[in-house]
Please model this.
Amino acid sequence: MDYKLSLNLLGKYLICLLMCFFTFFSFTAIFAMNTTPNVIGQQVAVFETKESEEPIEEYAHYYENGEDTKKIDYEKKGYVVVTRDITGGLIGTPAIVSNTISQIISLIFFVIIVPRVLYKEGIADINRVSCGRAKEDKLKGFKAGIPLAAIQFVSWILLILAKVGILQTGHIFYKFINYHIYGIQQLILLNTNDPTKIPVWSLCVALLPVIITLLVCFITYLLGYKDINIYDKLVYKKK
Model:
């Protein structure tokens, strides 16, 4: 395995994730400015009296978890309960349009930025192999993508741990490590704040980033090694 090539891929992947983050954030902000806020819960603070400056308890309650029985109990006991709305992401048509546009752009970023180095490596290997300075290895791109795919696989394990309640923040790691498919994640993970509610079928589909990475790395290197430029074939026509 070419570790230098793999590290190069990881560096490109980090750049890709940052660009994807700003893409989703920008489009979400643009659409959110023209839509009604989506209230998904309340931030609750409980005070002993109206004069109290420090709350005796603070917690977040999400509407998807049902009625806030703790708030009702505190109010029955005479405590002062102060709430603040928690807003979530976009919903409805604005969410679909925003996520679709952002997801398409993010996947383009991933395909262009991350495996591009493998395409160049494939082209360079044409000469190396023909001159006998290197052995032909059509799986070189696949092998180079293994460390990156391994990180994504670990994030999938963390997602499973969150699902079974062992690691509560595991799904957050999964989301950030695979941010280039954040739009698809909304469908896979059902856009829930409670990872224990993620269905089993979603966990199976959540392996998609690993498969995409290995497949794209394998194909991109092979295209370079065979000196096939898809862009030229699509843009330029033979006379």
